[in-house]
Write a structure and sequence with these properties.
about 240 residues; mainly alpha
Length: about 240
């Protein structure tokens, strides 16, 4: 009987041992450490995601800064400047040429001398008058061309201001600013051309009047010279 009891106890001990080995022991410290480690890893992942987002935004901003301005007024500005240059090149008779000016003031506008024939005096006076009239006409044409460019200046100014306000990057802002400066330079060129044409007309008119005064003095000298001017004589009116 005792042997049966001992055997039963032994069997019970043998079968009970695996059951105790399968029990899970909860360690609060280990659990807290695992949670903290997972939180740190999650924070690192979030930081990496944020860094990637910042890099992507930086690339987007760089792309905007490198984007060219979609609007250009260069063609219109070049056409405007070319029109003004063409008008200046159409200057009649005594134009914007230093050598030509020197030749004219050595001949047509030269002081009248006793060796100059009356025919040359009259011819030079007529040539000077025609040159002055042509210069006035040229000045009016240049001024008309400058006024005609004002419509282009107005439209291009509005377009460039709108483009600069809608610029998405630094390059577009810079390009818009450069085009506005180019437009201002074109206006300055037009103003310079108008002033030059007007100054040419005024200068030639002044030169024409000065030459006319000199020629008048020479003609008066010849008229008063003995044997050259009017000679009084007796006239019999009644027989």
């Amino acid at each position: 009987m005792c042997r049966l009891v001992v055997s039963a106890v032994a069997i019970a001990l043998v079968t009970a041992a695996p059951a105790r080995a399968q029990l899970v022991v909860f360690d609060p410290n280990n659990y807290a450490q695992n949670v903290l480690t997972a939180a740190r890893e999650l924070q690192q992942i979030n930081n990496q995601i944020l860094s990637l987002q910042n890099q992507a935004q930086m690339l987007i901003n760089q792309a905007k800064n490198l984007a060219s301005l979609p609007y250009s007024s260069l063609a219109q500005l070049q056409q405007s400047i070319q029109r003004t240059q063409d008008l200046l090149k159409q200057a009649q008779r005594l134009a914007y040429d230093v050598q030509q000016i020197d030749r004219a003031f050595a001949t047509t506008y030269a002081p009248a001398t006793g060796n100059t024939s009356n025919q040359d005096l009259v011819g030079n006076a007529q040539a000077r008058w025609q040159t002055s009239v042509a210069a006035l006409q040229d000045a009016l044409k240049v001024q008309a061309g400058v006024v005609g460019n004002l419509d282009m200046v107005k439209s291009q100014s509005s377009a460039l201001v709108a483009a600069s306000q809608g610029a998405s990057g630094a390059l577009q802002v810079t390009q818009a600013g450069n085009q506005i400066l180019a437009l201002q330079a074109q206006q300055l060129a037009d103003l310079t051309a108008a002033v030059a044409a007007q100054g040419r007309a005024q200068t030639l008119d002044t030169a024409q009047r000065a030459a006319a005064q000199d020629q008048g003095r020479e003609q008066l000298r010849r008229f008063l010279a003995p044997g050259q001017g009017y000679q009084p004589s007796n006239v019999r009116m009644f027989h």
